[in-house]
Design brief:
Length: 220
């Protein structure tokens, strides 16, 4: 069995990525940007901090007030999430399996702490996670592996014996860069040839992750 499991959150645990996409269409017009560049939502997935600002400006202009736009985005999504989140298939079953086998679990998400805590509490799964690392806690966003490295350090596990679960391309890049056992469970973006060469395994849902763990097929 792996020493620990690190979960991404949006798109992996909860069906929240469409909310972030919808928020762009609400927020950008407020800043005088009437059209949302079609590739912007996908490019922003899994990013945070200065990385997110650079990506945003590359799509909507170097003069854009990226920090203000991102703050407004988080505010809008927070309002949407107050109504609750939809769990991804197999989440409860995977969490129960890991808890039964005393495998430590951590969250490593680009979302702010306030949103992470709200989502976990609303979904009734907060108690499974002793460690939470947000994009606010690290200097370098995914695809840099820092957020996963911090989570593994807090759990006291070795990267090569720690499972990272991700749905985003940058998340897979980060897991691979940190030498983690990296499993992709695609959500809104399908893996590319580059990503297939990086991840350890692709699973259709979290039920499959649980079954592979039970069969010992994801051990280091």
């Amino acid at each position: 069995m792996v020493e620990g499991v690190i979960f991404d959150m949006d798109g992996l645990m909860f069906d929240t990525e469409p909310l972030w996409t919808d928020a762009w269409y609400i927020v950008l017009p407020e800043f005088g940007i009437p059209e949302v560049p079609p590739a912007l939502p996908d490019a922003m997935r899994g990013s945070s901090g200065e990385t997110s600002y650079r990506i945003m400006r590359s799509f909507i202009g170097e003069d854009a007030d990226a920090p203000a736009i991102w703050a407004r985005m988080k505010e809008e999504v927070h309002k949407m999430l107050e109504r609750g989140v939809v769990k991804k298939p197999g989440l409860d079953e995977l969490l129960a399996f890991l808890a039964e086998h005393d495998v430590p679990m951590a969250i490593a998400s680009s979302s702010p702490h306030t949103i992470i805590e709200m989502d976990l509490n609303n979904a009734g799964v907060r108690d499974f996670f002793t460690y939470i690392v947000s994009g606010e806690d690290v200097e370098r966003a995914k695809p840099d592996p820092q957020v996963f490295q911090v989570a593994a350090e807090r759990m006291g596990t070795e990267a090569t014996k720690t499972l990272v679960l991700e749905d985003s391309l940058n998340g897979v890049r980060a897991g691979a860069a940190g030498s983690f056992i990296t499993v992709m469970v695609p959500d809104m973006i399908a893996p590319t040839d580059e990503i297939r060469a990086l991840y350890t395994r692709e699973c259709k849902d979290l039920f499959e992750v649980r079954d592979l763990l039970a069969a010992g097929e994801l051990d280091a």
